[in-house]
Amino acid sequence: MSDRHAARVERLLDEAAEACGTDERLWRHFLGGLAEPVRRGLLQAWHWQAHGGQREPAAPWTVWLLMAGRGFGKTRAGAEWISQRAREMPDARIALVGGNRDDVVKVMIEGPSGLLNVARHGEEPAWTRTHGMVRFASGAVAFAYSAEAPEALRGPEHHFAWADELAKWGRGGSGRKADAGDGMGRSRGDRAWDNLMMGLRLGRQPRVVVTTTPRPVPLLARVRGLSGTVETHGRMAENVHLPEAFAGWMRETYAGTRLGRQELDGELIAEVEGALFTRAVLEGARTGPPPGPLPQAGGGDLVRVVVGVDPPASTGGTCGIVVCGCDAAGMLFVLADCSVGEASPERWARSVAGAAEAWGADRVIAEKNMGGDMVESVLRNVDVMLPVRLVSASRGKSARAEPVAALFEAGRAKLGGRFPELEDELAGLLTGGGYAGPGRSPDRADACVWAMTALMKRSAAPRIRAM
Prior knowledge:
Blueprint: H1 3-20, H2 24-32, H3 36-44, E1 63-68, H4 74-88, E2 93-98, H5 101-109, H6 115-118, E3 126-128, E4 133-135, E5 141-146, E6 160-164, H7 188-198, E7 207-212, H8 218-224, E8 229-234, H9 244-254, H10 258-263, H11 279-284, E9 296-297, E10 300-310, E11 320-327, E12 332-337, H12 345-359, E13 363-367, H13 373-382, E14 388-391, H14 397-409, E15 413-415, H15 420-428, H16 443-460
Parallel strand pairs: 1-7, 1-8, 2-5, 2-6, 6-7, 10-13, 12-15, 13-14
Antiparallel strand pairs: 3-4, 4-5, 9-10, 10-11, 11-12
Helix pairs in contact: 12-13, 14-16, 15-16
């Protein structure tokens, strides 16, 4: 579609959006009244179909890093951007780089959202598999490269590039031989990236779009830190074209887990060096969510439930409120995270009382260091019968958490569901002291530690079995 046609389509869309709103009947009437070439151009135009992070950043960039969850539409965005560059520059030479050759062919070129399938009517590219070359209708040419063969990128020059699933480069994702490096500390993925960028020197403004699901790998961190990198993000839920049955099943199965947050929501969840609670231990401790208050857990009724409270240091701060329980076998469970942020004393006290009532708690353990007797007074003003016990913090948060971390590592403590914010804080507690998680203070983690510490004596008590 010519620039004149594109401008006309854009004006028509603006007018139609104002007139039709969300009325499907009016939209159908509007489309039916258009001439066939204009209607076809409208349906094929990408700029109005793109959503959120699929749109090219407005700020100047050399590397556009589109980091999003699966199903968001990363591949479509990359293919459309490359197609537009080929349309605008008939002599363009373009690099297509994936983790391995199969990924380049099956995803970037031949896939449902690849270059061949997003092409407009009359602009279908010619794909020569044996030469690994895509020739666009304009005359522009794209070449397929694999990050597993970084030396193939040494020498060729390009105007533009599309790097797909960068976080997989050099990870042996297809079962191939391990990356031995190059004697300079550079992985195969690093070498592929370096050779690609060194050859990106044609034209006035060479650029590369990177589409990837986030993983905490050094190459991705390095690309994020480049001065010319601009990031956009996206979640699977933003793609309204996904079948609801699939999207619903994915949410039900993975929402709130580390895998779901990374693969569906596009969050970059890094493992903190020296973490007291590693992500692997937390994932391994997860069990299905309990069916309700006083659930059947670990094969027996919960025999004790405690609410841990870490009151905010100032009005409006976050109050950590975490419910934990212990079953007859001595297994400890995190049952609920009822923490509240930006809450007045009355509001967080009511949240504590509500959690205690909902879960039938026999004890509320609250830290008194910040507010002293005021903490108990605030809680009893809400519920005079609330079973409150105040505790003093004589050691740092990490030191208090060490015995609890040991329980998780030993398989004697479980997460009875998905608690992303609490888990992020637990994963930010460092061995030997310190905190590297979200926020200024691990309020939720501290509340969890208080509750589990109160339950530990019971879980560790010796039991006599009848012979």
